[in-house]
Sequence to fold (333 residues):
Amino acid sequence: MNITVLGSGAWGTALAYALSKNGDHDILLYGKCEDEINDINLHHRNSKYFDDVILPPQLHGTLDAAEALHGRDILLLATPSSQIHNVVSTINDYCDTSPLLINVIKGFDPLTGEGIASMIRKNLKRPDGIKGIVSLVGPSFAFDVIHDDLTAICAVSENEEDAKLVQRLFSSSAFRVYVQTDVTGAEIGAGMKNIIAIASGIMEGLGYHDNTRAALITRGLAEITRYGIAKGAHASTFLGLTGVGDLCLTASSHRSRNYTLGLDIGKEDDAKVVLERNQKTVEGVIATKTIHEEAKRSHIDVPITDAVYEVLYEGKKPSEIVVELMGRALKAE
Fold:
């Protein structure tokens, strides 16, 4: 198959590598960083992210959007959520086929708050001109995938046959893919776990330990499930890879950007100074605002999200918010 990965960052490169191991595919990585693309084409590396990995010869890079989107069977979208509108616009301008879209962008549309898959379909000029949209979601770090650590994730689509195609495309001895059809639940789980991860990092930064993290992840899962059910998701989704699996990984690892941002905020007991010096995309910052505002409109109780919002957007001290959370009225679990 002719496959283009839109996004030459760590996740796009790792998934391109996974695809290259699983069939005779022509794989093109489209990016905007000339150094990265030259590194891929000239040295078969993406040294900025993986300096010890040799990329396979059938994987090439391009800076040319027209080349990236000409004659492709599959487009894999692997950019930050903040770039999703630019990506869709590029597809509208240059795509000349009816490809299957694979979305690995986690979070929510920063402009509308809706799920990424819904936003993509709504903004395509020819929504009927694509085969379908499948989201690839679950507990996975790019570094582990490209180093063949055993990984299990979900191919999620309302069209089960599309999800099965992506399952076959990616599944290997190190990369196991399950099929799932609850798009709403998977998107909410993938987006909200980043909020809980920021909270978890904050708690460590403030000096709390394993008991606190276990409690936070558990109550965070309850919050994600409550919000998801209110939005039409299935409760069982949040007990799977796109729910508790993704949450446990992101909310407990120092390799998670969301967790480490929270860790820095907790150590400073102040979000403003940390956010001002942060240079990385941290999806949970956008997700916090999105979910806080939507939960307020929909009258859904999300106390952890609200607390993180107060820290990130209202200048509240994390140490004071913890006292407020622990002082909430007692109730049954």
